[in-house]
Amino acid sequence: MRTIRFLLAKEFRQIFRNKAILAMILVVPVMQLVVLPLAANYEVKNINISVVDNDHSTYSAKLIFKVTSSGYFRMTEAKNTFNDAFKLIETDKADLVLEIPHGFEQRLIREDEQKLFIAVNAINGTKANLGGAYLNNIIRNFNADLRLQMIVPGKLNPMPVVEIAPTNWYNPLLDYHVFMVPGILAVLLTMIGSYLTALNIVKEKEVGTIEQINVTPIKKHHFILGKLIPFLVLSLVVFTLGLIVAWAVYGIVPAGSIGLMYGFILIYLLAVLGLGLLISTYCDTQQQAMFIAFFFLMIFIMMGGLFTPIESMPGWAKSLTALNPVSYMIDVMRMIVLKGSGFNNIKHQLMKVFLFAVVFNSWAIWNYKKTT
Amino acid sequence: MKETVIKTDKLTKRFGDFVATNEISLEVYKGEIFGFLGANGAGKTTAMRMLCGLSIPSSGQATIAGFDVYKQTEHIKKHIGYMSQKFSLYEDLTVLENIRFFGGIYGLSNADIKTKSEALLNELGLQDEAKTLVGSLPLGWKQKLSFSVAILHDPKIVFLDEPTGGVDPVTRRQFWDLIYNAADRGITIFVTTHYMDEAEYCNRISIMVDGRIQALDSPANLKKQFNASSMDEVFFELARGAKRGE
Q1: Domains of chain A (ranges plus CATH)?
Q2: So what's the ipTM on this one?
């Protein structure tokens, strides 16, 4: 125990003397947490639309007004022919073209039927899909309004309407910040924790101080604990800062127990830091450690369910996420923060993450060789 | 009867096909200053790392302070000090913090650490630099500090790998004073060097060429044996036959 105290004193002194590390630990996460959720937003706005109005009637004007007033679309140039408008798509000035055919109003009233034409630039798939869907929705609304006006009083409504009234549980306003902030915090914590530990032991190898340690009778697990604990403490500080930012900037207050959250985070951090230490024991230079950590983190984060739901991944990818600690973390963060899940709900994730912690750390201790 | 603290028998280290250290056999006695000489690449550092328990030999036997280099490396580490070729104290810790840290992990009591660090600072004349970051000290001071930290826990043997490389002549003299003081306290010194004047300071020396020990005796006897007037000549005579090296 006494040895660990000396190791901790040394490690903390070194950390507090390294301004770059302090900045990385304190400033960077706060900044990212303020900036990223505002930018990383699934909600598609500012879809550029070009309208080709061949009709120039009251109805076509009404429709165009409805589209532009929805807030999702931004009118680019209006063109006279579809071909002209399509050029806007080709030059990436427009994402959508809505073509209103000649005689739109007339036929709509007389024949009770009309066709509109929408062309979508599908290079940005999300934007195109959502844009197309929004536009469809607006046109359907427009259509319903028209029908309502045309119903002759006294007659029965010729078409019964089924209306759906959805309620969004856990995030009633569908606020993306509420969804993204816990996830981004989880990712930040993962990155900071594993990078710092991955680089730390390797740095001692590069500088040569590890040799001086290896020639002492220090126990391997003491050495590893001496590296683990300081970064565990720092990561918890980062997490606390993150919670404060989430509350102060986005007004997110965890629905579930904060104690439970810290309990889970503690175990999770042991796993992530253990991974960093493990990488560190295999590398000889900080550059190698950087690249290997980057490789794993990239996969873990992209496949962790932050940006794309795991449920919609192909089967093989879904089974791979079972080996991805980040996916459990993002999951649990969202469960506790948004849903207020209790211990029994996260038991499964907790067990898995605990297993990662045990495996990574034992592996790191085993692979750290004082004698080669 | 002299007490043997280092005993090796045909100690060998291979890296693939390359035999870095080839069947070296030697004995070092308590309180002795043993010079371990050889050209660059002769296998000195490899041999020394095996003796320190940092590297497991490929074959041969060795005991350090009575402990086996295969099975009891951690016991060996309690009883030796080591100063590597590369400066390896923490540059971002102060002089005093380094002393405390290494004292602590060798298991010295707080009282011991306190008295020993004061004595050490006095001996080196570093009282005013106790709170200076080690990284900002001049090389000579760093080396002296590094040596003092290596013997802080009163080891039986201290291994020094080119401790005076790149250090000015005055500081080298002071460094050797420290070595003599340690030897007087009964600490066995095992030192590698490229300076032949330093070889003369040793009780006995061995000269390695291409992984083998080609000569082992006191400097005076070696000069007699090779009919040379200085250690320089002895070394040159032996080392010019080397196939590897620079």
Answers
A1: 2-40+172-367 (no CATH), 47-150 (3.40.1710.10)
A2: 0.87
Q: What are the extents of the domains in chain B? A: 4-239
Nearest to B90 among A5, A209, A215 (CB): A209
For position A163, what pLDDT does the model report? 65
DSSP label of B63: E
Q: Is the pLDDT of residue A9 over 90?
A: yes
| Distance from C-alpha of A129 to C-alpha of B39, rounded to nearest angstrom | 73
- DSSP annotation of B51 reads H
DSSP class of A124: S
Residue A41 pLDDT exceeds 80: no
Q: Is B102 in Cβ contact with A212 (below 8 Å)?
A: yes
* Residues of chain A contacting residue B75, judged by C-beta atoms under 8 Å apart: 217
Nearest to B88 among A18, A208, A372 (CB): A208
Q: Residue B65: what residue type?
A: A
Q: Which residues of A touch B (CB under 8 A)?
A: 2-3, 5-7, 9-10, 13-14, 17-18, 207-209, 211-218, 370-372
CA distance A270 to A287: 23
Does the domain made of B4-239 have the CATH classification 1.20.140.10? no
Report yes or no: A183 and A263 within 8 Å, Cβ to Cβ. no
**CA nearest A10: which of A269, A270, A216, A282?**
A216
Chain B: nearest CA to A217, how far in angstroms? Answer: 5
